[in-house]
Amino acid sequence: MILFLSLLGFVLASIFVYLRGKYNELYWKKRGVKFHGQNKFMGIFWDFITQNRPLFQIVRELYKQYPNEPAVGFGALFTPSLYVRDKNNVQFIMQSSSFVDRGFDYNDGDQLADNVLFMNGIRWKLMRQKMTPLFTPTKLKNMYYIMDKSGRDFIEYLENNPEKRKGNTFDTLTTFCCAAIGGAVFGIGSKSTFESPFLECTRGAFYPTFWSNLRFSLSNLSPSLFKMLNLKFFKEYEEFFIGAMKQVFRQREQEGTKKHDFADICLSLQKSGEMKHESGFKMEPTDELLAAQGFFFFTAGVEPAATAVFGALIELGRHPEIQKKVQKEIDEVFEKYQNQLTADAVSEMEYLEKVLNESLRVHPPIGFLTRRCVEDTVLPVGNIKIEKGTKVYTPIYDYHHDPQYFKDPEVFDPERFTDEAKQEMACIGARYAKLQVKSGLAHILRNFDVKTEVHKGGIKFGKDQVQLRMKNVDVEYIPRKVKFS
Ligand code: HEM
Ligand SMILES: *[C@@H]1O[C@H](CO)[C@@H](O)[C@H](O)[C@H]1NC(C)=O
Q1: What is the chain's pLDDT, residue by residue, as a tens digit (485 residues)?
Q2: Distance between CA atoms of 271 and 18, rounded to whole angstroms?
Q3: Residue 485 lies in a domain
Q4: Is residue 387 within 6 Å of ligand 2 at its C-beta?
Q5: From atom 12 of ligand 2, which residue's Cα is the shortest distance away?
Q6: Is residue 453 classed as helix, strand or coil in its secondary structure?
Q7: 329, 346, 353, 425: which to mutate for ligand 2, most atoms within 8 A of CB?
Q8: Hey, which of 346, 418, 431 would you mutate to test ligand 2's pocket, going by the most ligand atoms within 8 Å of its Cβ?
Q9: Under a CB-based contact definition with an 8 Å cutoff, are residues 191 and 183 in contact?
């Protein structure tokens, strides 16, 4: 009997998988869109769950496999899903009001997930509006001294801890970025930030584990199932993070000083009461809601920024000529400003910026973007009808490595013109991040030469959802022979 029932269950499940897969295939065929036939039931997510590769590498195969298609449909259980390859279609998506949502779903009570990256619709619009004033050029100039201090602290840390100069480069860089963002954006700064509990939190939040990858896949495959199971993304960090933010807010209230940072913006939002959108929509700026924004700033400020520094150091460490040239520029600016860098001084390092631009091209910290259609529309190239609820995936890494857009894309050449701004336009922190990354690089290269060691087998990637986590490669810091006062 039991054998019979399990056999029956297996047969029914197989029929379901087959029929659903067939449905997914017909869904796109009917719209005249090429369908990726491998695993019609859950497409790229099956590979992501069962293989030891990051998702960006899996979508990259679609990019290579269908060079002439404007878009490729794939099976994703109950979510119509489309990998959009054509650049004009991608531009259309990024500018269209039909695709405002990123399409992350999160459940009530997942307080830290209620942040500006995950939010949808009108709540996102309002929250984003309120957070935008954080990184005006004037504010950045005002907070630069904190970024600079964390750069100098980092050099001291490397000088005092020689074992940190070789191996685990990425982890060591995240300590720097964590200290910098903690100081600049939240006013929590001291040397002890190198062993900050915030670091554990930001490292853990997006660290790929089997479970977190499964959860992420499920949120893409079936939002309603995700909701039914009441899954949460960041529950385990809630108590610590919200508690810490409340402490920052209350302390700031008592001190009554203005630092023009994130905490200040939060307090002034709370003082003005309910936040209102011109459509009439309202939202209460509670400690919890504001802490969730802070949580995302922290996670955004640490790993992607550390990846940006890491990518630049990797390239400089294997291109000694370019390293010498950028060090020469850095030295000149340090001397011009008597070793006291300002935001303007950093902006004078134009070659450094070219190096950073080019290394962000070769090693973008985020591999692709997603959007969800909120009203039926049509993609211009291929005349593809898109229904509300469809999820689209758009390339970043693939464009950056496509010879059609960048000649000899694997060659690191800071002199090439790279215009990666388009994709970063959505990033509130882009200006802040660039300044922080350049400042960190300037301090590191002022004091150390770097040498890259790619271990046997070449650069590998962690099994991440949207990020690129470079592995099997390290950068060694070698104190420079020339010593400066
Ligand atoms: C080098 C470092 C960074 C990189 C490469 C990066 C990249 C990105 C990208 C590609 C997006 C767009 C995501 C999308 O449209 O789906 C984004 C969004 C965002 N980033 Fe960054 N980011 C970095 C640093 C930061 C920092 C330091 C902060 C804040 C302190 C920040 C805050 C945000 C926010 C709030 C959004 C969402 C904006 C919105 O919803 O409109 N990022 N980032
Ligand atoms: C670096 O890239 C940004 C964004 O595309 C661009 O505005 C800037 O001019 C570039 N910098 C240099 C020095 O090429």
Answers
A1: 888 989 999 999 999 999 999 999 999 999 999 999 999 999 999 999 999 999 999 999 999 999 999 999 999 999 999 999 999 999 999 999 999 999 988 999 999 999 999 999 999 999 999 998 888 898 899 889 888 999 999 999 999 999 999 999 999 999 899 988 888 878 776 555 556 778 777 778 888 888 899 999 999 999 999 999 999 999 999 999 999 999 989 988 898 888 778 888 899 999 999 999 999 999 999 999 999 999 999 888 899 999 999 999 999 999 999 999 999 999 999 999 999 999 999 999 999 999 999 999 999 999 999 999 999 999 999 999 999 999 999 999 999 999 999 999 999 999 997 665 455 467 889 999 999 999 999 999 999 999 999 999 999 999 999 999 999 999 999 999 776 65
A2: 57
A3: no
A4: no
A5: 354
A6: strand
A7: 353
A8: 418
A9: no
Closest-lying ligand 2 atom to the alpha carbon of residue 357: 1
3-state secondary structure of 62: helix
Is any atom of ligand 2 closer than 6 Å to the C-beta of 415?
A: no
Distance 428 CA to ligand 1 centre (A): 6
Answer whether 174's CB lies under 8 Å from 199's CB.
yes
Domain annotation covers residue 484:
no
Cβ of 432 below 6 Å from ligand 1: yes
Indicate whether 125 belongs to any domain.
Answer: yes
Give the 3-state secondary structure of residue 287: helix
Mapped onto helix, strand or coil, the DSSP state of residue 101 is strand
Q: Does the Cβ of 421 fall within 6 Å of ligand 2?
A: yes
CATH number at residue 20: 1.10.630.10
Q: Answer whether 102 contacts ligand 1 (Cβ < 6 A).
A: yes
Q: Is 422 close to ligand 2, i.e. is its CB under 6 Å away?
A: no
Residue 236 lies in a domain: yes
Q: Is the CB of 308 under 6 A from ligand 1?
A: yes
Å from CA of 354 to ligand 2 middle: 7
Ligand 1 in contact with 313 (CB < 6 A)?
Answer: no
Q: Is 369 in the pocket of ligand 1 (CB under 6 A)?
A: yes
Nearest ligand 1 atom to alpha carbon 437: 1
Give the domain range for residue 74: 2-479
- What residue type is 175 in one-letter code? T
Report the distance separating Cα 440 and Cα 130, nearest Å: 28
Judge if the beta carbon of residue 348 lies within 6 A of ligand 2. no
What CA–CA distance (Å, rounded) separates 107 from 230?
6
Among 345, 357, 343, residue whose Cα is nearest residue 415? 357
Q: At how many degrees (to 10) do helices 287-317 and 350-362 cross?
A: 100
pTM attached to this predicted model: 0.94
Q: How many separate domains does the chain show? A: 1
